[in-house]
Amino acid sequence: MTEVGGLRMWILHVIGEFGPSNGVEIMANVQKHYDLQVQWQRKGNHIHPHHNVQSKKLLPGSVYPMLKKMVSEGLIIKQDDGKYDLTENGKIIVTNLFEHFQQRNEHINQGVLSVENSLEAMNWHASYMEELDKEEIAPHEESIELLIERLKKIKESLK
């Protein structure tokens, strides 16, 4: 949960799986899923020697600020009953990240959903990169420039 975006992904996942939930329910479900993952890693001998897979206790001081941030980012909404639910953007991210675990509704236009998922994923990655230090990004300047050029070509093709 300590990796960049880890807690955010767990929160999106449990709200997507269990539906609208209050903060206590979200904490409990994230903790349960995280503990199961740690147990699976230990049993499956998938422990990397440099990774610490000890179970960590999730604290309200981590979850509630993240919930507030996710509301401000438009990923979740706090309902009048105090429960958090996914926004349309949150649903797109959950579908994009966990689509191989979820069944898709047949009435959804797959082409549009795919484009929306791709754009949302690019926005998500751009948000991550915006938070990195300049020194971490500088070695990748050429790749960034190539991506910018490709996106410009896509935009030009729409005219």
Commentary on this structure:
The protein has helices spanning 6-18, 23-43, 60-72, 88-98, 110-130, 134-137, 141-157, and strands at 76-78, 84-86. The chain has 159 residues and is mostly helical. It has 2 domains: 1-87 and 98-103, Arc Repressor Mutant, subunit A (Orthogonal Bundle), CATH 1.10.10; 108-159, no CATH class. A two-stranded antiparallel sheet has the order 1-2. Strand 1 and strand 2 (84-86) form a beta hairpin. The longest helix has 21 residues, at 23-43. The radius of gyration is 18 Å and the shape is globular. 13% of the residues are buried.
| CATH level 3 topology of the largest domain | Arc Repressor Mutant, subunit A
Strand content: under 5%
Mean pLDDT reading: 78
Strand order of the largest sheet: 1-2
CATH architectural category of the largest domain: Orthogonal Bundle
CATH class of the largest domain: Mainly Alpha
- Work out the radius of gyration: 18 Å
Order of helices and strands: HHHEEHHHH
Question: What structural class do the secondary elements suggest?
Answer: mainly alpha
Q: Any idea how many domains?
A: 2
Largest sheet: 2 strands, antiparallel
**Count of strand segments:** 2
* Tally of contiguous helical segments: 7
Shape: globular
Distance between the ends:
43 Å
Proportion in helices: 55-70%
Uncertain regions spanning at least 5 consecutive residues? 45-53, 100-112
